[in-house]
Design a protein that fits this description.
The complex is a heterodimer. By secondary structure, chain A is an alpha/beta fold. Chain A contains 5 helices and 4 strands; from the N terminus they run E-H-E-H-E-H-E-H-H. Chain A has one domain: Rossmann fold. Chain A has a 4-stranded parallel β-sheet, sandwiched between helices. Chain B is of the alpha/beta class. Chain B folds into 4 domains: 3-112, Ubiquitin-like (UB roll); 131-238, no CATH class; 258-507, FAD/NAD(P)-binding domain, CATH 3.50.50; 513-584, 2-Layer Sandwich (Alpha-Beta Plaits), CATH 3.30.70.20. Chain B is built from 15 helices and 25 strands. Chain B has a 5-stranded mixed β-sheet, with helices on both faces. The chains are: A alpha/beta, B alpha/beta. Chain A binds chain B through residues 6, 8, 14-15, 18, 25, 35, 37, 39-41, 43-49, 52-53, 56-58, 66, 69-70, 72-76, 79, 83, 107-110, and chain B through 442, 445, 447-450, 455, 459, 467-468, 511, 529, 531-532, 552-556, 558-560, 568, 571, 573, 576-577, 579-581, 583-585. One FE2/S2 (inorganic) cluster (FES) binds next to helix 3 of chain A.
Chain lengths: 150, 585
């Protein structure tokens, strides 16, 4: 049987969640691999949520927020935009491909963009294959070297 | 100054002492000829046509110029005695001997009974009335022109006869000049303020258009003489209600409100970039809005349907969907065009004998009574062609007399290509979102869709409200719609805003951030994170606290708190972890 990625999406209430809703009402097709968790703003996405999702067996995590300048809370998405690269580094340090975590902007009217992003992300994770956490053991020396390096 | 009574041609009149007797005579509607008098300028007594005979209080009888003779108690004035008339005629003939027969002079001569002045006509078009010099000095305050030389060589000119810097090009002199001796000409690359003094829409003070709200004139400081020279203020002198205040200034006011209704409407698509239709290049290719203006009784042609040259068109093509239902411009249907295009056809048929061609993709007569209107148009002899207008080009020489414009289209019902020569083309341009809609939306926390229209809370369940509490939408800013729909939405928006206001209190979302005092380390990181300044630091307790009334529940603080001390109610970490676990199990 072919590999079906399990994905978690954190969608902000105002733009992306509405965009996803619109994709639904407009009967647009996208892969059913992603399960959505609604948060009020992409700024609510605690890096721990992403780690927790990966720890529980998600093969990839997609965070969707309003386009820069459009956040319902003025600047929540900017905070998310700062937090996400750090989260990716953290994930990378754990031996997980950083491509498994992605941040995109989808507005309330961009139903087709929503379905494109989800389709594309699903395909990317499908190519990467399942996330094998058990392969990873904490290598103190390598982590220190990585820290030095940065 | 006291009031005195004088008698003019036997009629008593009470006037201000020392006011001029010409004005008193005018109040009594007694006609006295004048050439150098103007109500808002001091009298000058140059033309000497306003002569009257007076008897002063000591009984002396004299001939005086009425325009500058002050009223005194007991004065008797006679305006039409044989001596008065003879003097006026004499003065007129002397003036005529020097001046060219300008229409004002010829008319005045006729009134005085002089067809051929005894010393003939002269050549000068300037009658040296000095109105121009005085209006420039006293009213405008520019002092750009004056008299030069004396006697027979006296002329009106600028200092040293060079282009005057002092002249502000207001045109007041040209407006008061009775003979047309003064004309406005562009010189030294400077722009004339008023080419002609009119009370129409290009005067410095005017009502912007006939149905303006408020329906009151306003001053355009760019064109008002007062704002250039500090002079003039004629409008303030003539306004009987003393409403004009030149010192009034634009004010910015802050108004506290409980709800806002956005009703910023639409803008018209500019068809210039759609080069195939020749808009802006070919004469008599106009937009639907331009046709509406022309067709308005208050418009430039008083509601007549005319071509550029002023003739009535013999044929008109109305092209639907210009920029609408067009992947290159707007994919959506502008909704109102089909029906107004049919209205146009009806109006053209009513007002002219022109042939009308409607070029449409589909005819959408969707509303109540609309299909019936369409059926009526069919009986009025309108040519309906199913096929989008492809191109408007100048007609070839051979067909020019049928119409100078050639409309090309594919008639999809007849299944053939057609070329229709017409006199006029109306482009039904798309309704599009206001250029600044996105910016306006951002100010009110309302997002715009891909086409730029404001997004309602829900297409079916919340068509008037938005995702921001207290902000409502009405009219075409939410999407193309006609007047009945815009009015209905406006009413609904008003009702929703009212119900919010009548309640007098706002229901807050149960979602809100709270600080667990036991966990908060007092690092104050969250204080900076909150975009609403809802978190403050309690110095005594050395911990942060959330003001629930200010908190909008975005959760940024909860995501940022390193101690996990902030809980976003309804979106707590535990709830979200449970969700993650749930969906991945
Ligand atoms: C050529 C033509 C013919 C039409 N004929 C008909 C017809 O016969 N029957 C019919 O039912 N409908 C007709 N319509 C449609 C009709 O014009 C619209 O339905 C109607 O104008 C919509 O009203 P509105 O108040 O929503 O928007 P608008 O009429 O566009 O009014 C919006 C107002 O908001 C102002 N505004 C914009 N931005 C701001 C801002 N930031 N701050 C303050 N003010 C702002 C604008 O200046 C404007 O006055 C026609 C449309 C066109 C183009
Ligand atoms: S971020 Fe957390 S620990 Fe720091 S002050 Fe705010 S609530 Fe307290
Ligand atoms: S949830 Fe958002 S609005 Fe509320 S206190 Fe935290 S940062 Fe401020
Ligand atoms: S509300 Fe969408 S990112 Fe903040
Ligand atoms: S009007 Fe009185 S002298 Fe000209």
């Amino acid at each position: 049987m072919s590999f079906e990625p399990r994905l978690v999406g954190f969608l902000c209430n105002w733009c992306s969640y509405t965009g996803a809703d619109l994709a639904g009402t407009a009967r647009m097709k996208y892969p059913p691999n992603m399960r959505v968790i609604r948060v009020m703003c992409s700024g609510r996405v605690d890096p721990n949520f992403i780690l927790e999702a990966l720890a529980h067996g998600a093969d990839g995590v997609l965070v969707l927020g309003c386009h820069p300048g459009d956040c319902h809370y003025a600047e929540g998405n900017y905070k998310c935009r700062k937090r996400l690269p750090i989260t990716k580094r953290l994930v990378e340090g754990m031996g997980i491909e950083p491509q498994r975590v992605r941040l995109e902007w989808v507005s309330a009217s961009e139903a087709s963009r929503f379905s494109e992003v989800v389709t594309e992300f699903t395909e990317q994770i499908r190519v990467l294959g399942p996330l094998k956490l058990e392969d990873w053991t904490f290598d103190r020396a390598a982590a220190d070297a990585q820290l030095e390096h940065n | 100054m006291g009031m005195v009574t004088i008698r003019i041609d036997g009629k008593p009149i009470e006037v201000e002492e020392e006011s001029y007797i010409l004005q008193a005579a005018q109040t009594l509607a007694i006609d006295i000829p004048t050439l150098c008098w103007y109500r808002y300028i001091n009298p000058y007594a140059a033309c000497r046509l306003c002569m009257v005979e007076i008897t002063d209080k000591r009984g002396r009888v004299r001939m005086v110029t009425s325009c500058n003779f002050p009223a005194e108690a007991g004065l008797g004035v006679r305006t039409h005695t044989p001596r008065v008339l003879a003097t006026r005629r004499m003065n007129f003939e002397m003036l005529a001997s020097r001046c060219a027969p300008a229409p004002v002079l010829v008319d005045l001569g006729k009134k005085l009974g002089i067809e051929n002045p005894r010393w003939g006509w002269g050549e000068d078009t300037c009658i040296l009335c000095g109105l121009c010099v005085r209006v420039c000095d006293e009213v405008v305050g520019a002092q750009a022109i004056g008299f030069a030389a004396r006697g027979t060589s006296r002329t009106v000119t600028t200092p040293f006869e060079v282009d005057s810097e002092a002249c502000i090009l207001c045109g007041a002199c040209a407006a008061v000049c009775p003979t047309g001796h003064i004309r406005m000409e562009e010189c030294s690359g400077r722009e004339i303020v008023h080419r002609e003094i009119t009370l129409g829409p290009n005067a410095a003070i005017s009502v912007p258009f006939r149905q303006a709200v408020p329906n009151a004139p306003r001053i355009d400081p760019e064109y008002c003489v007062h704002f250039r020279t500090g002079g003039c203020k004629v409008c303030a002198q003539v306004c009987p209600m003393e409403c004009i205040d030149h010192e009034d200034e634009e004010r910015r006011e802050e108004i506290e409100v409980g709800a806002v209704i956005l009703a910023t409407g639409f803008q018209d698509l500019d068809p210039t970039p759609l080069k195939q239709y020749g808009y802006g290049k070919l004469p008599n290719v106009i937009t639907s809005m331009e046709f509406e203006r022309m067709n308005s009784a208050a418009g430039s042609t008083d509601g007549k349907i005319l071509m550029e040259g002023g003739q009535e068109p013999r044929s008109i093509a109305i092209l639907h969907c210009i920029g609408s239902r067009d992947e290159k411009h707007h994919p959506y249907c502008s909704r109102v065009c089909c029906m107004y295009a049919l209205k146009f056809a009806h109006l053209v048929k009513e007002k002219t004998t022109a042939e009308v061609y409607q070029l449409y993709i589909d005819l959408r007569s969707f509303g109540k009574g609309y299909e019936e209107f369409f059926q009526r148009i069919l009986t009025e002899g309108v040519n309906l062609i199913r096929g989008k207008g492809a191109e408007v080009v100048p007609a070839p020489q051979s067909r020019r007399d049928e119409g100078p414009l050639l409309v090309r289209c594919e008639d999809t019902l007849a299944g053939r290509f057609r070329e229709i020569p017409v006199d006029m083309v109306i482009l039904c341009t798309a309704l599009e979102a206001q250029q600044d809609a996105k910016e306006t939306g951002r100010k009110f926390g309302v997002s715009v869709g891909a086409d730029g229209w404001f997004i309602e809370r829900h297409p079916k369940l919340g068509p008037v409200s938005t995702t921001t509490d207290g902000i409502f939408l009405a009219g075409a800013c939410q999407g193309p719609k006609d007047i009945p729909d815009a009015v209905a939405q406006g009413g609904a928006a008003a009702a929703q805003a009212m119900s919010l206001m009548i309640r007098g209190e706002v229901e807050m979302d149960a979602a809100c951030a709270v600080v667990d005092e036991a966990l908060c380390s007092g690092c104050r990181l969250c204080n900076e994170l909150c975009p609403y300044g809802a978190i403050s630091f309690d110095i005594e307790k050395t911990l942060s606290l959330v003001n629930a009334a200010l908190c909008k529940a975005c959760g940024t603080c909860a995501a940022g708190c390193p101690s996990g001390a902030i809980k976003g109610l309804h979106f707590t970490d535990q709830q979200i972890y449970a969700e993650i676990e749930g969906i991945l199990s």
